[in-house]
TrEMBL record, chain A:
Its main location: cytoplasm. 4'-phosphopantetheine is transferred from CoA to a specific serine of apo-ACP by acpS. This is Acyl carrier protein. One of its GO terms (molecular function) is acyl binding. Signal peptide: none annotated. The modification O-(pantetheine 4'-phosphoryl)serine is found at residue 37. Keywords: Cytoplasm, Fatty acid biosynthesis, Fatty acid metabolism, Lipid biosynthesis, Lipid metabolism, Phosphopantetheine, Phosphoprotein. It is found in: Cytoplasm. It comes from Planococcus halotolerans. InterPro entries: ACP (IPR003231), ACP-like_sf (IPR036736), PP-bd_ACP (IPR009081), Ppantetheine_attach_site (IPR006162). Residues 2-77 form the Carrier domain. Pathway: Lipid metabolism; fatty acid biosynthesis.
TrEMBL record, chain B:
InterPro entries: 3oxo_ACP_reduc, KR_dom, NAD(P)-bd_dom_sf, Sc_DH/Rdtase_CS, SDR, SDR_fam. It comes from the Bacteria. GO terms for molecular function: 3-oxoacyl-[acyl-carrier-protein] reductase (NADPH) activity; NAD binding. Keywords: Fatty acid biosynthesis, Fatty acid metabolism, Lipid biosynthesis, Lipid metabolism, NADP, Oxidoreductase. It catalyses: a (3R)-hydroxyacyl-[ACP] + NADP(+) = a 3-oxoacyl-[ACP] + NADPH + H(+). Residues 7-187 form the Ketoreductase domain. It is an enzyme of class 1 (oxidoreductase). It comes from Planococcus halotolerans. The active site is at residue 156. This is 3-oxoacyl-[acyl-carrier-protein] reductase. SMART domains: PKS_KR. Homotetramer.
Length: 78, 248
């Protein structure tokens, strides 16, 4: 079973067209990974589908890095 | 002819008037149609029946367009029944006319809620699916008075001018995802909405229409069909005036 980080990484690579090794925990979506604000909205939508969970708009606004997303999902799954 | 075969369209306020005509035209062009209404269940079901009798596919769904939960449920039902949402026509609209000096807060709020917030709520609700599909068509039914102003309709005019601005922003925000948004601004179209107007107002209106007659719902439906089809593929953020020449 893939880890949360692996699954998040796959979604990001598919959506943003970046290389896997660029997807580090501290990488920010808009700064480091070249996402625009609409990409971030889509990314959150795809994470919701991938992990079968709802991410509220307020929670989504608090996610700016890969690490933010991973720890949010891990906490919600626990 | 514009072809919508295999597409699914949600038409708000399709139980009567212009919306009912759009629903029938779209079904004729091959679309699966969601006939939305707020109160007139029987009329909505009659529209669905007429479509089914002609070999089309349609369902009637009740939802107040300004109620986000009800609209979300409508989009979910559309997805379960038809599997996609390709087209949204924001047509539901009401009038509560009064001179500004006499206009009550309620009259203002009701019209802004249904006509403007309703467009925002419905657009937001279908955007997720359209973004995933990387395609979609949004057609907003505004009004020519939103362009020219009209005494006695401060609330309605503000809502329709708002819809034209919202159309442009929707077009800009979603263009990169293959979604277009355009508006139709009808002039005086013969429906329940305009039948309420007294003869004097109708006469004054008529004198401002170069083509010398009121429009018909099917004339609006044809323009909506064009904007919803592939024929309008390079057009976004625009407002088509369908007003017999009132505004040029
Ligand atoms: N007629 C004209 O001359 C004219 C000119 C310019 C623009 N327009 C615009 O064209 C659109 C259609 O007008 P029309 O003349 O066909 O009006 P209409 O005959 O009065 O029909 C209005 C439709 O909107 C629905 N509706 C009203 N409030 C709703 C709500 N909160 N949620 C969902 N549905 C709602 C009604 O459903 P129920 O039957 O269930 O109440 C009905 O199906 C409107 O946006 C109007 O502003 C009309």
């Amino acid at each position: 079973m893939a880890t949360v980080l692996e699954r998040v990484t796959k979604v990001i690579v598919d959506r943003l067209g970046v290389e896997e090794n660029e997807v580090k925990l501290e990488a920010s979506f808009t700064g480091d990974l070249g996402a625009d604000s609409l990409d971030v909205v889509e990314l959150v939508m795809e994470l919701e589908d991938e992990f079968d969970m709802e991410i509220s708009d307020e929670d989504a606004e608090g996610m700016s890095t890969v690490g933010d997303a991973v720890s949010y999902i891990e906490k919600k799954q626990a | 002819m514009s072809d919508l075969t295999g597409k699914t369209a949600i038409i708000t306020g399709a139980s009567r008037g212009i919306g009912a005509e759009i629903a029938k035209r779209f079904a004729q062009a091959g679309a699966n149609v969601v006939v939305n209404y707020s109160g007139s269940q029987q009329k909505a079901e009659a529209v669905v029946e007429a479509i089914n009798e002609n070999g089309g596919k349609a369902i009637a769904v009740k939802a107040n367009v300004a109620d986000a939960d009800a609209v979300k449920a409508m989009v979910d039902e559309t997805m379960t029944t038809f599997g996609t949402v390709d087209i949204l026509v924001n047509n539901a609209g009401i009038t509560r006319d009064n001179l500004m000096m006499r206009m009550k807060d309620d009259e203002w709020d009701d019209v802004i809620n249904t006509n403007l917030k309703g467009v925002f709520v419905c657009t937001k609700a279908v955007t997720r699916q359209m973004m995933k599909q990387r395609s979609g068509r949004i057609v907003n039914i505004a009004s020519i008075v939103g362009v020219m102003g009209n005494a006695g309709q401060a609330n309605y005019v503000a809502s329709k001018a708002g819809v034209i601005g919202l159309t442009k922003t929707t077009a800009r925000e979603l263009a990169s995802r293959g979604i277009t948004a355009n508006a139709v601004a009808p002039g005086f179209i013969t429906t329940d909405m305009t039948d309420q107007l007294n003869e004097d107002i109708q006469k004054t209106m008529m004198s401002q229409i170069p083509l010398g007659r009121f429009g018909k719902p099917e004339e609006v439906a044809k323009a909506a069909l064009f904007l919803a089809s592939d024929e309008a593929s390079y057009m976004t953020g625009q407002t088509l005036h369908l007003d017999g020449g009132m505004v040029m």
